[in-house]
């Protein structure tokens, strides 16, 4: 495998690169200039640049991780999210089509594509209707449709991974687990005076998977995924944000009081998102290995080390 990872310097990209080190010849792209000889600066909004880089590297597989990913931010920067996620993907697929249509491409979507699921619907399967309720979810939904379009119209060997919430050490602020862990670490290190943590809606239920398990799933999809198909990447287990917070607070040496922060409430909130990973399991045998409490402890310890 000769792999090209777009967005290789991002949260998931770094973990995927590390996982592939002994399995593939790895190259990557970043929006920023890099001195590393296997990472290339690339603006995916330039189809010409993308085409020339693909011709230069000649990858057998492309893992398309580049893009914008924060749901809350997408409400304030709608056009940026459409440009980065949708137009960037169009340019990548066009460049692949013209450079070498035998390259296997995996795009990355999100459980936010499903939007609000009817109460009592249970675990969400890939064929469930897509009703995104955020600009971010809409942009990822468009990518999944582009995958089907390019497969059916041009025969491109492209698959779509649809991960649910992925968490782990190194995730930037702006996501629930790392935000909580960061605040708790600040208190325990004595960096802030008040033993209070700002929270949003604790009643929502999500399906959390360790990013180190996620990238293993991406590798399996890259190897065995069928062109034009979508694969949920998830645990199949729902966890309330309240439970997530309680686990993280159990690591604290100090008593901490949660305080509701209106700024942490989303304009539109999906009450429950829990996926069904059976399609991916049947295809590849992949299953998540890491326990939620262990992942949360790693996130918390990572912040203690960094602060």
Topology, element by element:
Layout: E1 2-6, H1 11-20, E2 25-30, E3 39-41, H2 47-57, E4 61-64, H3 71-76, H4 78-99, E5 104-108, H5 135-154, E6 158-163, E7 165-167, H6 176-188, E8 196-199, E9 205-206, E10 208-210, H7 211-224, E11 230-233, E12 239-240, H8 241-249, E13 257-260, E14 272-273, H9 278-284, H10 292-306
Parallel strand pairs: 1-2, 1-4, 2-3, 4-5, 5-6, 6-11, 7-10, 8-13, 9-14
Antiparallel strand pairs: 9-12
Helix pairs in contact: 1-7, 2-4, 4-5, 6-8, 6-10
Organism: Bacillus methanolicus PB1
Domain NAD(P)-binding: 4-298
Protein name: NAD-dependent epimerase/dehydratase
The CATH topology of the largest domain comes to: Rossmann fold
Neighbour order of strands in the largest sheet: 3-2-1-4-5-6-11
Radius of gyration: 19 Å
Number of separate helices: 10
Protein name: NAD-dependent epimerase/dehydratase
InterPro entries: NAD(P)-bd_dom, NAD(P)-bd_dom_sf
Domain NAD(P)-binding: 4-298
Organism: Bacillus methanolicus PB1
């Amino acid at each position: 495998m000769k792999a090209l990872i777009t967005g290789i310097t991002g949260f998931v990209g770094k973990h995927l690169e590390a996982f592939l080190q002994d399995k593939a010849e790895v190259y990557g792209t970043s929006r920023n200039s890099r001195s590393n000889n296997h990472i290339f600066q690339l603006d995916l909004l330039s189809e010409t640049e993308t085409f020339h880089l693909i011709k230069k590297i000649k990858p057998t597989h492309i893992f398309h991780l580049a893009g914008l990913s924060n749901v809350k931010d997408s409400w304030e920067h709608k056009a940026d999210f459409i440009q980065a996620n949708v137009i960037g993907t169009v340019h990548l697929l066009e460049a692949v089509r013209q450079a070498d249509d035998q390259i296997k491409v995996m795009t990355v979507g999100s459980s936010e594509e499903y939007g609000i699921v009817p109460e009592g619907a249970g675990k969400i399967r890939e064929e469930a209707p897509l009703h995104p309720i955020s600009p971010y979810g809409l942009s990822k939904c468009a990518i999944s449709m582009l995958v089907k379009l390019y497969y059916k119209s041009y025969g491109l060997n492209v698959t779509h991974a649809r991960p649910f919430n992925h968490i782990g050490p190194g995730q930037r602020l702006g996501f629930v687990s790392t935000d909580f862990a960061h605040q708790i670490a600040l208190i325990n290190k004595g960096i802030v005076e008040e033993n209070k943590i700002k929270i949003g809606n604790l009643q929502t239920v999500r399906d959390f998977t360790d990013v180190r398990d996620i990238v293993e799933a991406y590798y399996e999809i890259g190897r065995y995924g069928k062109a034009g198909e979508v694969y949920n990447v998830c645990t199949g287990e729902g966890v309330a944000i309240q439970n997530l917070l309680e686990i993280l607070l159990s690591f604290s040496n100090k008593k901490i009081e949660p305080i509701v922060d209106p700024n942490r409430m989303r304009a539109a909130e999906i009450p429950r998102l829990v996926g069904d990973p059976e399609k991916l399991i049947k295809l590849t045998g992949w299953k998540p290995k890491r326990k939620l409490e262990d992942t949360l402890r790693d996130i918390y310890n990572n912040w203690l080390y960094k602060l």
